[in-house]
Design a protein that fits this description.
Blueprint (H helix, E strand, L loop, with lengths): L1 E4 L8 E4 L10 E9 L2 H7 L16 E8 L10 E3 L10 H4 L23 E4 L6 E2 L6 H21 L7 E5 L3 H12 L3 E6 L2 H9 L4 E4 L5 H9 L3 E6 L4 H9 L1 E9 L13 H6 L3 E4 L8 H9 L9 E6 L3 H7 L8 E6 L3
Helix pairs in contact: 3-4
């Protein structure tokens, strides 16, 4: 099969012909229909993720059709599926409690296992996979990727956003735009933060109530002023100390910070604990979403309750994936790139 292989960190991906994946006994092989290009992939591409090494195949935001099923698999050839990027084992206490996204024995394609920047991908623990609505295009399905599902879980499970609350979103990449669209659907008021005026304007056009340019204003003070004392919920969508502290400091007393952005490197950063202590804030981490929550979200999208099509800015070929990753080293344009042409 054709695959985009990480030859060296920070260098263009190598398009190679590699062996087709072997089908797991407890899983399936998917013919990849589409795969999102995510900032988490960028961290791996730069060498900032401990499980990514040269020679690996990235790609964790994928959907496709089953072409082979193992003897213990639940799905069969021809099934059209989307996969949570965290594939929980299904048997540990965390999985049994419904929190498979926290499974310590999980497999994550693209991070320690071959990913979906390829024509085929092996998916173990196929009980995690979910049928796609017939009306949902592969590009949109892959565009949901980890960004929309992670944002949905962050808003509805971790921070439990309520209608009328102010939600601050730090970063308007894939996670940030997802959180904006979903928070508005939940009835929240939203202020977005970024350093690129084009992305702020784009967020405003999608329904954001206010926007703050971090290069021009004191972010935390600006949000406290806009919201009349601070946001009730703040979503950190980048993974760096600057946005983490702005997120904590912009909150009202008893506010909830939810940390979505994946920290790179060793993950260490200095955080304003005085703000957390004095305002009695809640600080939540979140990662992914368990598979059992997918059907409701997919059904809402299929019924038109929320329009997530603005998430997908461009469809690209496999050979363009490296350029998309390289572009993340600087300011990026709005929206997400999705690989839909696996043959070129």
């Amino acid at each position: 099969m054709r695959a985009a292989v990480l030859g060296e960190f920070n260098q263009d991906l190598c398009i190679e012909t590699v062996a087709d994946p072997e089908c797991p006994d407890n899983g399936v092989v998917l013919e990849v229909a589409a795969c999102g290009v995510c900032r988490s992939d960028y961290h791996g591409w730069t060498g900032g993720h401990p499980k990514v090494r040269p020679g690996d195949i990235l790609g964790h935001e994928y959907c496709g059709t089953v072409v082979e099923a193992g003897p213990q698999a639940r799905h069969r050839a021809g099934d059209r599926l989307i996969a949570p990027f965290i594939l929980g084992c299904g048997t540990c206490p965390l999985c049994q409690a419904g929190t498979s996204n926290a499974c310590e024995g999980a497999v994550v394609p693209g991070f320690g296992a071959p990913g979906a920047y390829a024509q085929y991908v092996a998916v173990p623990y196929d009980h995690n996979l979910v049928h796609l609505p017939d009306t949902m295009a592969p590009a949109l399905a892959a565009g949901l990727g980890c960004r929309v599902t992670t944002a949905w879980h962050a808003l509805t499970d971790r921070s439990q956003v309520r209608a009328g609350e102010w939600v601050a979103i730090h970063g308007t990449g894939g996670i940030g735009l997802s959180a904006l669209l979903l928070a508005k659907m939940l009835g929240a008021q939203v202020v977005v933060v970024d350093v690129v005026e084009e992305k702020l304007a784009h967020a405003l056009s999608l329904g954001a109530d206010a926007a703050v340019n971090a290069t021009k204003e004191d972010v935390a003070q600006a949000i406290r002023d806009l919201t009349g004392g601070g946001a009730q919920v703040s979503v950190e969508a980048l993974g760096i100390a600057q946005t983490t502290n702005a997120s904590v400091e912009c909150l009202a007393t008893l506010g909830r910070h939810v940390h979505v952005g994946m920290p790179s490197g060793d993950g260490m950063m200095t955080v304003n604990m005085r703000a957390i202590y004095s305002k009695q804030l809640a600080f939540y981490g979140t990662r992914g979403m368990p598979g059992w929550k997918y059907p409701r979200l997919l059904d809402m999208i299929a019924r038109g309750e929320v329009d997530l099509s603005p998430m997908v800015a461009r469809e690209i070929s496999l050979s363009d994936a490296g350029a998309e990753l390289a572009a993340m080293s600087g300011p990026t344009s709005p929206g997400t790139a999705v690989i839909t042409d696996l043959a070129s």
